[in-house]
Amino acid sequence: MIPIEHILLLSALLFTIGVMGVMLRRNVIVIFMSIELMLNAVNLSFVTFARSMDSMTGVVFIFFIIVVAAAEAVVGLSIILSIYRTRKTLNIEEFNLLKW
Amino acid sequence: MSIASGYLPILIMIVLGIVLAGALSCIGLFLGPKLRGEVKETPFESGFLRNGMAGHRYDVKFYMTALVFLIFDVEVVFLYPWAVQVRELGWFGFVAASVFLGILVLGLAYDWKKGALNWE
Amino acid sequence: MEFITLADLTPIIPEIIVLLTACIVLLVDLFAPKKERAFTLAVTTIIGLLLALLAETQLHGKEITGFYGTVVADDFSILFEFIYMSVAIVTVFVSRHYISDNEMNFGEYYVLLLTAVSGMMFMTSGLDLLVIFIGLEIMSISSYILVGMKRKIAKANEAALKYLLLGAFSTGFLLYGISLLYGATGSTLLPEIITQIKLNGADNPLVVVGMALVIVAMSFKIAVVPFHMWTPDVYTGAPTPVTGFLSGAAKAAGFAVFVRVLLTGIPLDSANWENLFWILAVLTMTVGNVMALRQNEVKRMLAFSSIAHAGYVMVAIVVGSTSAISGVIFYSCAYALMGTGAFGILTIKDAGRTPRTFDDLAGYGKRNPFLALLMTLFIFSLVGLPLTGGFIGKLQIFSAALQDGWIWLTIIGILNSALSVYYYLRVPMFMYMREGALPEGTDLSEQTSGFALTGLIGTAAAVIYLGIFPDRILELASLSILALL
Q1: What pLDDT, on the 0 to 100 scale, is given for residue B92?
Q2: Which stretches in chain C have pLDDT values below 50?
Q3: What residue segments make up the domains of chain B, in order of their start?
Q4: Which of A17, A68, A92, A96 to mutate to test the interface with C (most CBs of C within 10 A)?
Q5: ipTM of the predicted structure?
Q6: CA of A82 to nearest chain B CA: how many angstroms apart?
Q7: Which residue from A minimizes the CA distance to C168?
Q8: Which residues contact C264 (CB under 8 A, 6 or more apart)?
Q9: C152 vs chain A: nearest CA distance in angstroms?
Q10: CB contact under 8 A, C158 and A95
Q11: Given this model, what pLDDT does residue C140 score?
Q12: Is B3's CB within 8 Å of A78's CB?
C-alpha cells in the first residue's frame, strides 16, 4: 500500500498548483478551473485521512464538497456568462471599472 | 514493501507506453506512402465534410441545459447513502429523502416556469 | 445505534422557518398574479423573518443541541441570529423601491436574501465544521448572485465576479484547513477537536497549519487586511441594499464563527498567535481608515470604513476577555444597524438619482431634511459619538483592552477613531454646508417611499436605544459568552 504521506504530498501539490493557477492565470475560466482543482485536492486529503483513520466523517464531508463545488460552478459560470455579455472579454485584467 | 517496488509497475507502464508510441509513429513515417492532394489536406471530421470554424459559438440554450443538468445530476449524490441504508433508516429516512426530493422538485418547477427547459 | 428523531429539529426551528419562507416566496413569485406581486413578496418575507425571530425568543436560555451535537441553539447563536434577521428586515424595507427602479424586481431577490440569512444562521449555530462550512457556502453563493443582480450593469457584473472568485478561493483554504484539522484530531466536531488538541498539545504541525488556513479563510470573509482587496470593489458595485446587508449581516456572521472557533477551539495563549492577531488588528484598522480618507464615492468610503470597523472588532478578539467578547457581540450588533442604516439612506432617490459621490450630497439637507437628520445620526454612531450604539461599542472594546493591559493597542485604536472623524464628518458637512448645483428642471417633488422610511426610522431608533440603554444587550452578551466557554 502507498504510504499516506505520499498521497498527502500529492494533495498538497495539487492544492498549490491550484493556488498558483488562481494567482497567475488571466482567463477567468482557467482561474475558476484552478479553484476546482483546489477543492479536489482537499477531497483527496479528506479521503486519505478518512481511510487511514477508518472514519466516515471525511467521506461524508466529500459528498458535501462535491455538491457545493457544483453549485458554485453553476453560479460562477452564470456570472461569467453575464459578464461576457456586457464586456465581451474574459481577461481578468480588463475588468477594471472598479479599482481592483 | 519498499516504495520503489510499489511504483515499479507504473514506471514500466510509462516506459513501455513511450517506447511503443514512439516506435509506431516512426514506422508510419518511414514505411507509409506519401500522397498530397486537396482532400488529404482538409482536417478529418469523422467522415463528414468539414463545416464551420473551430471557434464556432454554441447557442445559449445548450448552456442553460448544461447548467440545469449539472446541478440536478450532482444533487443525486445524496440519494446514494440513503439508498444503501434504506431499510435501517426506516420511515424517518424516507421522509427526510422525500423532503430533499421535494426541494429539488421545487427547483425543477422553478426552471420549468421560467422557461429554462424550453428548447425552442 | 440511535437515530435522529424529530426532537433533533428543535434547535434549528428558526432556520427551518426561514427556509420554508424562501420556498413560499419562490412559489408566490411563480404563481401569484402580477399586479400585487412585488408587495406580497416583501410582506411575506418580513412575516417569515418575524416568525423566525419569535421562534428564537422561545429557544432563549435553553442551549439545546441536535443532530449528534452538530448544531446548537445557545444564547450566543440566538443573539447573532437576531442581528442577521433584523438586518434582513431592514434590507427588505429599503430594497422595495430600489429594486423596482433598477430592473431587478424579481422574487429571487427575496428568496436569495432569505437563503443567505439561513446560511448565516447555520454558520452561527453549527458546532461541527461541516455545518459551518455548509452554512458559509449557502450564505456566500446566495450573496454572489445578490451582488450581481443588476445583470445589465457592467460594474455589478464585475463586482459579482470578483466576489465569486475570491470567495471560492478562500473556501478552498477553509476546506484544506478543515481537512488538516480532521487529519490531526480525527473529527470535525469542534468540542471533539478541542479535547484532542488539549490532550496532545497544539504543536502538531497539522493543527498549526490547519488552524492558520482556517483563519486565513475567515479573514477573507470578514475582510481583515491583507485579505480585504475585494471589499471596496464588491461593496461599490453591488446594489446598495445588498451592500448594507453584506456589511451588516455577513460580517457579523464571520465574527460569530471567528469567535466560536477561536475562543472555544484554539487556546490563544501562545504568544505567536497573539502577536499575529495584534498585527492583523492594527493593520486592519489603519489601512481601512487611511484608504477611506481618499475616497470620493460615499459607498466606497463606507466600504473602507467597514474594514476599519472590522479592525476594532479584531482588537476585542485579541484581548479575548469576557468583557471584550461581549464587546464583539455588541459592536457587531451596533455596526450592523448603523452600517445598514447609512447604506439604506443611499438607496433612496434624491433629485432623480441615488447619491453616489460626495458632491451628489451637496444640498441634501435642504432637499430632504428628515433623511439628512437620519444620515447624520448614523454617521455620528459610526464615528462613535455619545448617545449612539457605536460609542458604547467602542467604549466596551477599548476599556476591555485597557483592563487587560493592552495599552498600545488601545492608543492605536483611539488614534484611528480620531482619524475616522475626518472622513465621516464630510458627509454631514456636504449635506448641510454645501449648496448643490442641480441641472435645470430636476424633479424635486418625488416622495420618499413609506416602506423605506419605516425601515430607516426603526434602525435609527435601535441605534439610539443601544446608545442609551446598552445594559440589557451587554448583559445578554456576557451571559451568552459564559455559556460558550
Answers
A1: 84
A2: 1
A3: 3-114
A4: A68
A5: 0.95
A6: 11
A7: A35
A8: C190, C191, C194, C484, C485
A9: 7
A10: yes
A11: 95
A12: no
Q: Which of residues 81-100 of B touch A (CB under 8 A)?
A: 81
The residue type at C366:
K
Number of A to B CB contacts under 8 A, please give it: 30
Closest CA to C22 of C43, C1, C2, C48: C48
C-alpha C265/C-alpha C278 separation (Å) is 19
Each residue of C33-44: b (16+ CB within 10 Å) or e? Answer: eeeeebebbbeb
The CATH number given to B3-114 is 1.20.58.1610
Does position A100 have pLDDT exceeding 50, yes or no? no
β-partners of residue B45 are: B48
Q: How far apart are CA B110 and CA C30, in angstroms?
A: 7
Nearest CB to A86; choose among C141, C154, C179: C154
Cβ atoms within 10 Å of B76's Cβ, excluding its own: 12
Would you state the cell numbers that stand for residue C339, as one nine-digit string? 452600517
Q: Do A67 and B6 touch (CB under 8 A)?
A: no
Q: What is the DSSP letter of C248?
A: I
pLDDT tens per residue across span C187-243 = 999 888 888 888 887 778 888 888 889 989 999 999 998 898 899 999 999 999 999
**Residue C205, amino acid:** P
pLDDT bucket at A41, cuts 50 / 70 / 90:
very high
Cα separation of C340 and C332, whole Å? 12
Cell of A43: 477531497
Do B77 and A67 lie within an 8 Å CB cutoff?
Answer: yes
- Residue C3 in contact with partner chain B when CB distance is under 8 A: yes
Q: Write out pLDDT tens, residues A64-74.
A: 999 999 999 99
- From the list C290, B64, C187, the residue with the least C-alpha distance to A81 is B64
Identify the DSSP state of C320: -
